[in-house]
Model the fold of this input.
Amino acid sequence: MTTVKRTQANGDTPAAVRVRGVYKGFGEGQTRIPVLKGVDLDVALGEILLLAGPSGSGKTTLLSVIAGILDSDGGTLNVLGSSIPELSPDAKTRFRKQNLGFIFQQYNLLPPLTAAENAAVPLIIRGLPRSQAIARATEVLHEVGLGDRIDFLPAKLSGGQQQRIAIARALVGEPRLILCDEPTANLDGESGRKAMELLRRIGNRPDRAMIVVTHDSRIFEFADRIAHMEDGRIEHVKQNHGRDHS
Ligand SMILES: Nc1ncnc2c1ncn2[C@@H]1O[C@H](COP(=O)(O)OP(=O)(O)OP(=O)(O)O)[C@@H](O)[C@H]1O
Ligand SMILES: [Mg+2]
Done:
């Protein structure tokens, strides 16, 4: 059965990300290696899009270009209404702070900071007073089931718990786009599913989009659509019919 979901990236739903003909290479002159070779991709607000594909196909590079961390060589790239290539370096940084949340394979927590302090980092970077940032981070840690671990250092927590702090940190600033790169790669199957279930349950909102790069077919069921990347291009994007009836 073909059902049109509100989350489908079509003309009816506002685009969070619109990528057209994006190119990116690394290196100089003769030795320059093309990595993104004309990427087209749409992600709608309200949608979780999974990005799968072989190692080296350009998934992380694409996320970095969408985030404005790497500059593309050509093509158009609109994220939440802003044309990223046209922003100055400072404006890109401000845009990221204000609008984006990140979750990585390595949780990238700061070892000397407690769970609450780690989760509060995006708000502190935005200039929120520390006490307010910690209070808001504590709320989100409760939402991710770590209310009894707010004063723990990362080293005293399991991998799954550390990733839940990273999820709290990604959500704390209410970003409109969340970019995840292999978020479950360091977790066992059960912890990985729990992390994605959590992200879907508390992170998925009509005014927010998520792109999740993954090799982990066990978490495909949490996607609204699955995009397959091959050799620097999006080969196809499939609706995840498993979710149509949910
Ligand atoms: N900073 C860089 N300098 C030079 N080459 C790079 C750089 N970053 C990535 N590459 C190259 O670009 C290609 C794509 O890398 P990328 O990290 O985007 O792949 P990926 O799809 O994320 O792979 P994986 O699934 O292994 O994480 C690889 O061949 C890689 O060697
Ligand atoms: Mg990668």
Summary: Residues 114 and 152 are 5 Å apart (CA to CA).
